[in-house]
Amino acid sequence: MNQRILHHDTASAHHASATPSTAPATGTLRLTTAQALVRYLAAQRVRTEDGTATEPLFGGVFAIFGHGNVAGLGEALYQHRHELPTLRAHNEQAMAHSAIAYAKAHFRRRMMAVTTSIGPGATNLLTAAALAHVNRLPVLLLPGDVFVSRAPDPVLQQVEDFHDGGISANDAFRPVSRYFDRIVHPAQLLTALPRALRVLTDAALCGPVTLALPQDVQAAAWDFPADFFEPRVVGFHTPAPVAEEISAAVERLRQAKRPLIVAGGGVLYGHATDALHAFAAAHGVPVAETQAGKGALAWNDPLNTGALGVTGSPAANALAHDADCVLAIGTRLQDFTTGSNTLFTQADVIGINANAFDGLKHRALVVEADARLALAALAAELGGWHADRAWTARAHKHAADWRDTVGMLTHAPQHETVLPYDADVIGAVQRSSATSATDDIVVCAAGTLPAELHKLWRAGRPGAYHVEYGYSCMGYEIAGGLGAKLARPERDVIVMVGDGSYLMMNSEIATSVMLGAKLIIVVLDNRGYGCINRLQQACGGAPFNNMFDDCEQGPLGAPPIDFAAHARSLGAQAEHVANVAELEAALQRARAADRTYLISIDTDAARTTDDGGWWWEVAVPEVSAREGVRAARAQYEAQLAVRAQAAGDTENE
User: What are the Thiamine pyrophosphate enzyme N-terminal TPP-binding domain coordinates in residue numbering (predicted)?
Assistant: First the structure.
């Protein structure tokens, strides 16, 4: 892999960071807006994970050039290409997904920027911006914008608002950005860039930042203060716990006999995994993991009860249902985690979160703080407090039983006449690793696979599980795998993707080959949208418009798709396998290959893992001519009544 791209191990970059001038720069530098922006980004440093050195905060800039950014930002990026590498991509949404995944794989301590032209290039970023917003992940979006002068108005690709001349297509980024600014004069960078950096590096504010860059302003020059571009080691802001909030949480925990920890992504991003392990072990508190928090504890930790919620394990869900106190750490408590607010309605909830907006979910007692600092503060005040010993023993048994079940599910005997399903493929992938998949990173995003992976993937260390399920965005998988590989080039990145998501977005296979960022891609082909097909029928609907066989078709019918041939056309190595045994052999070839390697396998669209799971609210039509829909509506109303009863009981206690 190209180490310069990933780590900037060039002499010029190393020299610039290792030997900054001891005296602050004086005077001014006449630069264009684009040159100043790029120079500022290249100057930002961050301490390495071991704290012994510094490295660039920005790992690079993904760029697809057009008339809105090639002349201004493109020229500036060329000037600084050694300190801030520019990476060419093939799809704007995909390259933003890669940048987001890069930050996720670095636990938000390093990040990337993305630049596009105006018009479709910019609006292609909107889905990725929403994904970063929902997942609280940093990415700097730099879309080109229309002329501030309006001299050529309307310029090619300009979206005109009939009532406001100051609006462009980029205003669509406002609701999906944590910070938005339009730079209409070069001097505005002096305030906009520090604000942007603060949002990107603040645990509570973290998310996408959009700086819209009108193309004439990109090219305009101004005399910038030279010291604005001095190399700077960026700090990450994490709020310390407030004594009163810690005391209130301690009082509530001391009253609890059956506590449960819900570990969310904030545990990983807050580097709190060791603190979580120590706290759970010292106080006998079982841990359940959200999608974003999976890997916070090793899969074989005796107190790790597995996935929680709609895609959860029977162990975690049984304990959540009976818990009297839930310590929710670094989680948004979205509906898949809470079973649409039916899973732990009887429990007091304590929300530890750097962002009070998230900590207050589920009517929680909030501790607005960094996860690691909050756990340390709680442990100091709790002293020798311990959960009820019978509760801890029950958690140990449930966790051990579930680990045994996972082993059986992923090592089930295969029958030649029966198509494998996701659990069979997951087992084969994990068996293919010489290190029990400890060093692998699995990447996924949407469909059935996230549910199966959440239950069955054995994450041996933080970061081994990389599933985007906050936005559940089909098409993230391959692009996200590329970002994870750029961040962690020493580890095998396994992208597991369904045929539906693959067909939505796959062009970054070519990018991965071009950059030498090898991926192992496993395509599970069930000939359609199997997940939604099952949901459709569970809601009483007829199979319709999801599987190829149930879609409107012309005289030639649905085409047979050769995913291996397609991947080869993009520069990867690839093969199709007929069964799990062939898959295991192919995985060994893939691990030994020198480039991205795709393996496709036909899978069963109907089978899923029966163990675990919980109710998820999907509204069923109140009126329908179909008997199946009416029956599903009756079941839906019964579940609503159960939730209402539970909420009433909680309010009356």
Answer: 61-158
